Amino acid sequence: MEMTLRWYGSKFDTVTLKQIRQIPGVTGVITTLYDTKPGEVWSRERIKALKDEVEAAGLHISGIESVNIHDAIKTGAPEREQYIENYIETLKNLGEEDIHLVCYNFMPVFDWTRTELARVRADGSTVLAYTQEAVDAIVPEKMFDMIAGDANGAILPGWEPERMARVKDLFEEYKDVTDEKLFENLKYFLERIMPVCDEYDINMAIHPDDPAWSVFGLPRIIINKENILRMMKMVDNKHNGVTFCSGSYGTNLENDLPDMIRALKGRIHFAHVRNLKFNNTEPGHLDFEEACHLSSDGTFDMYEIMKALYDIDFTGPIRPDHGRMIWDEVAMPGYGLYDRALGATYLNGLWEAIDKSHTRGVERR
Ligand code: DNO
How many CB atoms lie within 10 A of CB 34? Predict the structure, then answer.
């Protein structure tokens, strides 16, 4: 595996490439052209400029998160043809620049959903959190206003104001899209892009729906082992793969994370590793917050997650995921420097311990 950090580009991120380079063991960034809109072609020049900037800082681009999918592709509207052509063009340009990993999602309307961006914990740190009661009590149009105030001035991925201004229309566009239809539209999209992925060896890594269930009655399909295996089978190509995000699949406690990792051997191209702390698991009252990465601070056994990745010979990038806001840092919620650096160091420590106990055990035998 390679340890990486997500970076939004110098125009949008409070964290610098120099700071990322100084985190022990982090050698790559997961980045994007954050000001491009879903459906737009990424030019070769802009990709190259981004790559040059990252490389000048002594790092490299380990993958793109995200090249977003236009809603017409998800709903299966006639305009999807043009947007798929554009997506293919972007993949080609990325391939020409030697970039071989693309994370994307197929979530309708909203990307990830949280109800608080700055819940204060006992130690004074703040974290992203979700309560079912808050979701049940609000209409989708108000969701954006509810969380935007806590965003430290940042534009959150998937929650761009111009997109949120159209929330009502977007809901309308999805009104006939069932889970089955969404699967069909995803299949159609993947079949169209696989030839260019084969040509340039680009691994597509779908991000799970977060949380892993339907919100506001919208269809959601990338939520559990059964569905993700169905998706792997329906377009059975190694370039059709997964971003294994423990914090997203983990929102549903029925998802056995190490077991899912083992079942997806060979198809996990990218991993987001983080912990969650569940405060209430009663249906209708579910409440969780994004704890620090340490097993002891949350609900997941992080050792078992890293061990499962180790056991499947995972060689792709891992990034620590949302961090807490600590030490008075002001940054995009979840994406400050300090707690993600602690997360990367902890995950690297787990990996080293797993690796050494494995290889030394083998040597002793
Ligand atoms: C949240 C992220 C997601 C992810 C997209 C991938 O912080 O994990 O926004 O980047 O769903 O397209």
Answer: 15
Please tell me the residue having the least CA distance from ligand 1 atom 1. Answer: 112
Q: How many angstroms separate the CA atoms of 21 and 27, rounded?
A: 7
CA-CA distance, 58 to 79, in Å (whole number)?
41
Buried-state track 310-343, b at ≥16 Cβ within 10 A, e below 16: bebebebbbbbbbbbbbeebebbbbbbbbbbbbb
Whether 335 sits among the annotated catalytic residues: the reply is yes
Does residue 280 sit within a domain? no
- The CATH number of whichever domain residue 57 belongs to comes to 3.20.20.150
Output the residue whose Cα is nearest ligand 1's atom 2: 112
**Rounded mean pLDDT, 307-321:** 98
Looking from the CA of residue 335, the nearest atom of ligand 1 is 7
Distance 250 CA to ligand 1 centre (A): 15
Q: Determine the Cα–Cα distance for residues 298 and 277; give it in Å rounded to an integer.
A: 4
pLDDT per position as a tens digit, 92-138: 999 999 999 999 999 999 888 999 999 999 999 999 999 999 999 88
Residues 13, 71, 287, 321: which is the catalytic one? 321
- 186 belongs to a structural domain: yes
